[in-house]
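Appendix B. Chain record.
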Amino acid sequence: MSPHPRDAVIVQAIRTPLCRARKGGLAKLPPATLLSTVLHGVLLKDPQQTKAKASADDYLIPPDSVQDICVGNVLSPPTAAVSFRMAALSANIPYTTSISTTNRQCSSGLQAIANIAHAIQCGSINIGIGAGAESMSMNPMGELYEKFPPEVDWDQMQNCDNSTDVMGCVIPMGVTSENVSKKYHLDRRTLDEFAAKSHQKAARAQSLGKFKSEIIPVGDVTQDDGIRPSTTVDTLAKLKPVFDKKNGSTTAGNSSQLTDGAAAVLLMSREEAMKRKLPIMGVWKSFAVEGVPPKIMGVGPAYAIPSALEKASLSTDDIDVYEINEAFASQAHYSIQTLQLDPAKVNPNGGAIALGHPLGCTGARLVVTLLNEMRREKKRRGVVSMCIGTGMGAAAVLEMEGMTSAL
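Structure tokens predicted for this chain:
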């Protein structure tokens, strides 16, 4: 497709370090602080600058140019709508800029970007920020159903005609991982090998400084702290299964880490980027969400990726880089295998098993990492995808244009 003035383009994309929940460098910070950091940083020419206060010349665009913000978040209480508004205002973004939150579970950060991109494409706005933020330290995932149990008539749900899928929505995520392993005959060693490679790739990327261009420091925290360079298949093999203690294959070592973090992406119409003479990091080409059986929710990417590619008139071979969330090694491996993707193209710098999975942030973080990788390696097309709790998958296709904004 030829360039169009209302194409949604990305001109800046940054994230905080991803740090272990409860034990890491961001554990004592509320999600609003993480969000404020990236909302401020994504508007700067140099997000890594350490000035106490930015001057007008430091901004890529004036903060009052931003018309709307959408933030993905999963675990914060409903008052996040207030705390995130406060975060935006504290980031020197004026009250004239509106903000909303969105929750499509693990794809929330990507959904936030999609919401802004689609608003730009249809002409509702010209400039917006899609973001994601999560503190799994402040809002532990394990307490979610205790504090906010599903508000349903359980008798009705358990006895309706579609009760299998209905009740599948409340199956613990780890159990759905075991369901994928059993249904598709994935053995424990295969999953541990996948997990070990994630750490090895992430450790190498970190040692080479590949993440520096995408990370904005939070205080004195400057890098991801969940990567374990010494991880091997043999060390992972010593861990016991968590969800099926007798016959299971899913362990803490081949699952994503509980993590704190935030990410933000600055989007605008192509016409606006041209007018402001801003280089384009990437173009939003397509987005898809597909439903799958809740009890094997992890297979979502295997359905969402083909759907997003079809919308962009592309095939899997046309894609140079895939960033697929590693919620569990089982579902990530299954999706890659089913789609017959080249493993060398998938998560070249490691994934959530090594870096972590701050639920509402992950979708935005994957976009940030993808764009920086494609720019660094001079790749043209990329895909972001993840599974979604209750049985869905989401995917987006993005394209580089050589950092130009010409029509």
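Further analysis of this model is presented in Appendix C.
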